């Protein structure tokens, strides 16, 4: 990574600063003060593999570097590390979604909370990359930019209804991946046509269109949820059919949730470049929520991302990258059967375990 500091101001090596910051985040640190405290407490251990020519950086140094470090270059480092760890991801379901760091706003400076989009490899439980949403733009433009930096060949990319856009679908196909896009009101005419068509498929009123369906039943904590998945060939009479790159199938999920004897039903519709393969379609649809449950929820609840008040320069974005890097490392350590918070606590107490997390 390029060092953003003037050469005459570099009392501490950039590598030392970043490594200490990452170790501190793994062990429960939440900002520059915690990073400096971690470094001071672990200085003897850190000197085994870091130079530390002028000792441990101060909390001000950590803060200045986090604010000045180029987040694009930092994100590229994260992506290169992931590529080394997992090489290729054929067949993987890649969930792409946005997240806002609620505490990063600055009312006095008129700065809104920063929003980022991330790509999450579901089965490997790894963040593949992150891109900040420009203040004058939205997630719709940030997602294609992120995807073009990733190797998602032969993967299935899932996105929510906001990203049911022809340009996004085209980018995914250019990346040699397949898409499963949630279809809602932002494509109202197409949604209505897909609903009518799949209604005819379910009533067996179509001829010559391949289709399939399956059903799953889950129950826990007094709740029973039955999901019925339908997928069918996408007919060329759908409105705007030719504008959707390689559109091959459409699908729906009907979810019936029963709690204390009261049932509620919801139906969601999808566009996809996948052929009719109900098992693959169902896995992609159900797997999309992994980014919320296994990534965003942990970042907020375990890492306290929404509570972070870092907001100067690029500090909030770079801290978000450090959290995702730390979460990746914690998820890769599978030998110890502990929860995320317990792994962090153990790493803070046991230097050997921290090395195990760092080295995968």
Shape: elongated
Radius of gyration: 23 Å
End-to-end separation in angstroms reads 22 Å
Strand content: 15-25%
For the biggest β-sheet, the strand order reads 3-2-1-4-5-9-8-7-6
**Which structural class is indicated by helix and strand composition?**
alpha+beta
Stretches where pLDDT falls below 50 for ≥5 residues? Answer: none
Following the backbone from N to C, one meets helices and strands in this order, namely: HHHHHEEEHEHEHEEEEHHHHH
Largest sheet: 9 strands, mixed
Q: Helical amount among residues, as a percent range?
A: 40-55%
Number of strands: 9
Average pLDDT over all residues: 92
Question: Helix tally?
Answer: 13
Describe the structure.
By secondary structure, the chain is of the alpha+beta class. Among the domains are: 7-74 and 312-359, no CATH class; 164-277, no CATH class. The chain has helices at 14-26, 32-41, 43-46, 59-68, 71-86, 139-147, 166-174, 188-202, 278-287, 290-301, 315-332, 340-349, 351-359; strands at residues 93-100, 115-121, 126-132, 156-159, 178-183, 211-220, 223-233, 249-259, 262-272. Strands 3-2-1-4-5-9-8-7-6 form a nine-stranded mixed sheet, with helices on both faces. Strand 4 (156-159), helix 7 (166-174) and strand 5 (178-183) form a beta-alpha-beta unit. Helix 2 packs across helix 4 (59-68) and helix 12 packs across helix 13. The protein is elongated and about 75 Å long. 39% of the residues are buried.
